[in-house]
């Protein structure tokens, strides 16, 4: 996993911790018997907001629909948990990812300066899951 994220990556210890937390879900997408990617969802107590904390697709598996399938799975899981909104941050220079999120109904809500380890800004995107 470390080779896929040159910066701003989860440590093994952090990933292991997330696997055992009651307020996180990790979905894995299998592709031909190997892990094609994963998505980490975080939840806060007394909140109906779910957050995509991390989404990773193996470089050899990109453009095969894995990210889209993981996001669609995240929407289902968050909805089943009673969340009404799904949010995430994406690098401002990652236009391909922003396009994917927007094609799946996410709306840009703001820009966050200096968000990433290298000082790059992020774009906050949100998707309404259902009306209450």
Tell me what the structure shows:
The protein is of the alpha+beta class. It has a single domain (2-128), classed as 3-Layer(aba) Sandwich (Aminopeptidase). The protein is 25% helix and 36% strand. The chain has a six-stranded mixed β-sheet with strand order 1-2-3-4-6-5, with helices on both faces. The radius of gyration is 14 Å and the shape is globular. Residues 1-8 have low confidence and may be disordered.
Give keywords.
132 residues; alpha+beta; Aminopeptidase; 6 strands; 25% helix
What's the total number of strands?
A: 6
**Which whole number gives the mean pLDDT?**
86
Shape: globular
Which strand order do you get reading across the main beta sheet?
Answer: 1-2-3-4-6-5
CATH homologous superfamily heading: Gcn5-related N-acetyltransferase (GNAT)
CATH topology: Aminopeptidase
Give the SSE layout.
Elements: H1 12-20, E1 24-31, E2 34-43, E3 49-57, H2 66-80, E4 85-91, H3 95-103, E5 107-112, E6 122-128
Parallel strand pairs: 3-4
Antiparallel strand pairs: 1-2, 2-3, 4-6, 5-6
Concise overview:
With 132 residues, the chain is α+β, with helices and mostly antiparallel strands. It is 25% helix and 36% strand. The protein has one domain: 3-Layer(aba) Sandwich (Aminopeptidase), CATH 3.40.630.30.
């Amino acid at each position: 996993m470390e080779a896929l994220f040159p910066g701003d990556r989860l440590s093994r210890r952090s990933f292991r911790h997330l696997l055992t937390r009651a307020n996180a879900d990790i979905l894995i997408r299998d592709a031909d018997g190997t892990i094609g990617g994963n998505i980490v969802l975080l939840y806060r107590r007394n909140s109906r907001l779910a957050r995509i904390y991390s989404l990773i697709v193996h470089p050899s598996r990109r453009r095969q629909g894995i990210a889209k399938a993981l996001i669609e799975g995240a929407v289902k899981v968050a909805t089943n948990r009673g969340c009404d909104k799904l949010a995430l941050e994406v690098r401002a220079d990652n236009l391909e990812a922003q396009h994917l999120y927007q094609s799946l109904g996410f709306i840009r809500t703001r820009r966050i300066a200096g968000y990433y380890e290298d000082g790059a800004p992020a774009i906050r995107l949100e998707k309404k899951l259902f009306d209450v």
